Amino acid sequence: MSRSRSSLLFWTVLFLAFGAGGSLAYIYSGIYDISATKQHTRLVYWVMSTARRQSIKTHAAGDVLPPDVADANLVSAGLVLFDRHCSQCHGAPGIAPGPIGLGMAPSPPNFAQMGRDLPAEEMYWAISNGIKLTGMPAWAFRLSERERWALVAFLKRSTALTPADYRAQRDRLASAGVGEATSRDSGGRWEPDGAAERGRVAIQQYACATCHVIPGIRGADAQVGPSLEGIAERLYIAGNLTNTPAHMVEWLRDPQKINPLSAMPDLGVTERDARDIAAYLYSLR
User: Fold this and answer.
1) Pfam families this protein is in (predicted)?
2) Contact 82, 155 (CB under 8 A)
């Protein structure tokens, strides 16, 4: 290697090392203000918004075949679901977001802007998977596929909806039972190997990391409940049940029924999600 090339490599490595060291020093100094009352810097906002836009575009590309989002029944169901789950952050025609949505940073986009900005496939992906660092949750573990497409259908048709029409339709549809939750359980036999990876995602979506140490889950270091490390080797669950997959599913779905004195809450875990979470837990040997 020539002397000039070696010199260039040396200065490049030195520059990167100083840059990394400076970034770490800046982070550890606590200078950056993370309070929600302060705007992100222009650079941070650009990085977050660009990463969000490009990530959605990249990951939403695929073979997803959307239903007819102009279907009136789908739009109607979406209106009720949006009012119930989304208006608190995104607002609705003539209705402001709730205190949580108004206090978030960055502010959640207005419902009408979402309907204009994203194609249906990208909107469905964002609703299903959520968006990190924004407060947008992943609804794939809360709503069925049809319900998520119903939200897309409503958002695509909502830009022409007046406040009076929105309220009238919401009240009429809700009283008629439109938009009621559908089952997300898929049934099927016990498949501990195939379900473990989905269970790893599900265990995050039910916020188990806020109480337990969980191997393989970053940030799962809370000491509220017992560590789940090596749980597959334990003899009992909650001190009451023998440690079997069926009992684990039973415990995850209704812990208060098993032990009314337990602080473990009922998280509304579905049958399928409980099986998949159990599959992940039994992989922690």
Assistant:
1) Cytochrom_C, Cytochrome_CBB3
2) yes
What one-character DSSP code corresponds to residue 19?
Answer: H
Note the CATH architecture for domain 196-281: Orthogonal Bundle (1.10)
Q: Which two tokens stand for residue 58?
A: 């990249």
Residue spans per domain, the chain: 69-175, 196-281
Q: Are 226 and 210 in contact (CB under 8 A)?
A: no
pLDDT in tens, 110-151: 888 888 888 999 999 999 999 998 889 999 999 999 999 999
Homologous superfamily (CATH) for 69-175: Cytochrome c-like domain (1.10.760.10)
Give the closest residue to 220 by CA, choosing from 137, 280, 139.
280
Cα angle: 48, vertex 53, 56; to 5 degrees:
115
C-alpha dist (Å) from residue 249 to 48, 265, 278, 282 = 38, 14, 6, 12
Using DSSP, state whether 283 is helix, strand or coil: coil
| Reported confidence tier of residue 239, pLDDT bands at 50, 70, 90 | confident
The 10 Å CB-count burial string (b at 16+, else e) for 105-139 is ebebbebbebbeebebbbbbbbbbbbbeebebebb
Secondary structure of residue 103 in the 3-state scheme? helix
Q: Which residue has the tokens 């009451």?
A: 240
Decide: residue 250, CB within 10 A, 0-12 exposed, 13-18 middle, 19+ buried. middle
Identical fold for domains 69-175 and 196-281, yes or no, is yes
